[in-house]
Specification:
Blueprint: H1 20-23, H2 39-49, H3 54-61, H4 73-81, H5 86-101
Length: 103
């Protein structure tokens, strides 16, 4: 019966005398990524900061505006700027105030 011999993986080049410090290149300092400035990222940041969900948007819109949650922030701002929608704007401000006071 023939016996199998171990196969050893050989490394090319002389690695015995190389120091680990000489092999490693110095790392560059980490630079933070710039914040995204797009419209969608700004909208998602605004939604996250205000802790808004679809349910909260529907509560803020109430019966005055059924599709408040489906609107974009630009449309919501335009809607709340109208004087006849002061009730909705008041509920929006009330929600923001409650979020700011929570730790």
């Amino acid at each position: 019966m023939a016996t199998k011999t171990k196969r050893v993986r050989r490394v090319k080049g002389v690695t015995k005398h190389a120091t680990s410090a000489a092999v490693k290149a110095p790392k560059a300092p980490k630079v933070p990524k710039p914040a995204a400035t797009g419209v969608r990222s700004e909208a998602s940041r605004r939604t996250a900061e205000g802790m808004f969900t679809k349910i909260i948007f529907n509560q803020v819109g109430g019966k005055e505006c059924r599709r408040f949650a489906a609107m974009t922030w630009k449309e919501r701002d335009a809607f709340m700027a109208k004087p006849e929608n002061a009730v909705v704007h008041e509920r929006y401000q009330k929600h923001l105030a409650s979020v700011k006071t929570k730790p």
